Task: structure prediction
Amino acid sequence: MTTVSVAAVDLGATSGRVMVGHVGPGLLALEQAGRFPNGPIATPDGLHWNVQQLYAHVLDGLRTAAATETIASIGIDAWAVDYALLRGGRVLGEPFHYRDERTARGVELVHDQEPFAQLYARNGLQFLPFNTLYQLAVEREEGMLGVAETMLLVPDLIAWYLTGQTVAEATNASTTGLLGIASMEWDGELMSRLGLPRALFPRLIQPGQTVGTLLAHVAGASALPEATPVVAVGSHDTASAVVATPMTEPGGAYISCGTWGLVGVETEKPILSDAA
Result:
């Protein structure tokens, strides 16, 4: 195996970065190609993310990386649960921030149809009032789901900007509350109960699969070849953090600190008991 260089786009809730990873036999070295702030923008209708600005920063970082390295592939991770709605290849406004107050209304709308205990048995998710299904319940109530054709979570949205391909990477899809914990497929039955159109949710892909290659204008802006592949990683940033943790002992636990502080263990199967 020879040494290769890959670009990692890592988007957090307060900042983002583009890193170049040099990978080879006995080698893993990281070099920063770009770092930039991120945060919510308050508009008359609530809190939003400026994802177009994030995309511009990503292109800047990729261009910096391409100036000194031959980039073999690009991977993208980001925070969970937030998304954009698309129609006809257009983004319908900037994505809402998960701390926007509208999510409280979504909890009531969902739990009227599916009590939390039943949801937990289906999706294994801790109750958080901003999980994607609660946000989408508000979109349904406001009529937006009758307009939208596709929903893309934030890392999948950045991948779409780069490649034009609409997919849903599985680790981040699991944070929506709409992925069956047993099947690891979209839960069409739950979507139907909640009035969420199944067609809104793109095909699932697994980490390691290729999303696509760069669009011509992206290649021009980033100074990378059009043939450069964007490869799915654990696009929920916590998934990538945990899989990179050297859990060499069977009793090991991880602590992941960022905007959130998360503590957990790796298990062969999900634990869905009342105690959990």
